[in-house]
Putative HTH-type transcriptional regulator YofA (Streptococcus oralis SK610), 248 residues
Amino acid sequence: MNFNDMSIFVTIYETRSINKSSKILQYAQSNLSARLKVLETELDTKLFYRKYNGLVPTESGDLFYQFCKETSNNLEKLKKKCETSKISILISELLFNHDINNSQTIDLNKSEINIQKTSDIPIIAHQEDFDKIFCFQKIENLKHYDEIIGHIESVYACSSNIKATEEMPIFVNKDKNCPFRKQSLMKFTHLKSVVEIDSFENIISLVENGKGIALLPKWLNKRANIKPYDQDIVLIPFYQYEKQNQSR
């Protein structure tokens, strides 16, 4: 007995007809009759009476139908549970890239990733439920989560293909809560040429192409087109929140 045979039986039971069932299931009538015979042999009981106006379930047929429906419902519940067993993660673009390229704590195959702007994460964290939250801001009044503080080693970077000068613009994220932006503005207060960019990846691309300087995670120096602008190491703190008593 298998789930396919049970599904065939349910269709036959509900249509009371091998002919109608064959059209619905796109099986030959002979195949359906054969599968029904297999079920009756395995269960050692007759499931239908053959009447002139169709099939009539026996008492055993009624009981087996209830069993099949319950099994089907339980199977669907199990499928949904397996689908939703992924860990839900709320994270910013930069922290996501940092984890994938450096920490590697996120299993992409077992996670549902929700990437949001740094400024929006504290708001969303209070509105929706997540297993893990990564954020550059400390989230106040977040109940039932353990807080872990981490740091990203960062350097001011420029293109390795050019000689950087102080006249070059400094790229910062448009998000005013971005800690890389705050650190950059403190260091380069004397510069008038500060350019706001709305994407971490766009900032990296501009730096690689020699268009300016930006404070970036140190691991990005592994890229062929990026090198440190100076020797300063900046530790950027971030917060990781994990739901307490996770059963997953």
About this structure: The chain is about 40% helix and 25% strand. Residues 122 and 139 are 6 Å apart (CA to CA). The two ends are 32 Å apart (CA to CA). The first helix runs from residue 3 to 15.
